[in-house]
Amino acid sequence: MQYRRTEKFIYKREEICSIFRSDDIEQIIAKYDYIVSIDLERFVYLRSTLPPDFFDKLALSLREGELCYISFEDALSRWSVISQIPMVLILGTTGKSGFYKTRFGSIEFVHVPHSHEVIMANTTEPYDTIRLAKKLFAFEDLKRIDRNMHLIDYEELYAED
Fold it and tell me: From which domain of life does this come (predicted)?
């Protein structure tokens, strides 16, 4: 099978159907337990070696062609502005909002109205796979959706880094 000879580990629906020569995606994932469905949009091949940044790559693949960056509570936790650690990867995206609960972890996408230029100017270069919102940009994102504002440590928010 061609999927065994590649380093690829995330597939689109049409790719899986082509590999298994069937359009019945539910039958494919029922028969082959090493093919894991992510909302019938993306599929993970478990017999491949998953890289350390696999989960980030999975998230980005769900919003292919859109700009995504870590923001909201997730980014503020990484900047120590929120002491709680979210149990979900929270991304701002130029694409549609959505929530994915997978066996690998949960991913939340929140649509943002920012332009490409604004996002690039207010996020850091990715230290892994996904760009990270700068502290005040993540705060403005969170303020815009008015969620969990009571968790903010304002001293830390305005402290020099």
Answer: Bacteria
Alpha carbon distance, N-terminus to C-terminus of the chain = 51
Q: Which amino acid is at 149?
A: M
Phi then psi for residue 154, to 5 deg, are: -65, -30
Confidence of residue 2 (pLDDT cuts 50, 70, 90): low
Task: State residue 4 phi and psi, 5-degree precision.
Answer: -75, -20
- Per DSSP, the three-state class of 16 is helix
Rg, Å, the chain Cα set = 18
Give the 3-state secondary structure of residue 125: coil
Strand partners for 68: 93
The pLDDT of residue 146 is 96
- Mean pLDDT of the region 63-67: 97
Sign of the dihedral through C-alpha 50, 54, 59, 62: negative
Q: Which residue has the tokens 């509570």?
A: 73
pLDDT digits (tens, 9 = 90+) for 112-153: 999 999 999 999 987 779 999 999 999 999 999 999 999 999
Residue spans of the domains in the chain: they are 2-50, 56-158
